[in-house]
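[Primary structure, fold]
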Amino acid sequence: MRVSSITVLKIGGSLARSDAAARMMRALAARKVSKLLIVPGGGEFADSVRAAQPRDGLSERAAHHMALLAMHIMAVALADFAPGFVPAENGLQFDAAWRDGKTPVWLPTAMVLAAPEIAASWDITSDSLAAWVAGKMDAARLLLVKSCTLPARSDSAQALVDAGIVDGCFARFVEGRGFAWQVVTGVEAALDALQ
């Protein structure tokens, strides 16, 4: 049995509302963490889609696609914050980045739209997608970085769902999977967790 060394790191879109996301990327570049896959949140771009959907009468399918493109935009931004990061769409591109000594930042649109198990719904956001891609890549661990205060039971997926910290499907995507997972608040806590 192969033991994975891949860590999936989801950087919440809310961190981009300050300089936290850029600080996180610069710190990661300085540390040169191997076999790291960055998953972007959708941030303010996804918030715009959320607001536009009822106003403009967008279908779930269209809003889902647009929210994925919001993550795509954030991936381009994250990759630009520090040297050594490259946007990448799939496992082949992730592997190529790692071989080149770079860190891939996931562009999720193509992979997710091709996945019938991913419903076009706001119940599946970048948190669940990070867990989904961690499973697809046979990752060893998943680390979600948030900007909010966590509940006392932050080791319980259902407690995080109930508190509104993660989306409604997150528990389904992490429970019983072959990777460890953790949710932390802020850049420093994330860097400590990566030690």
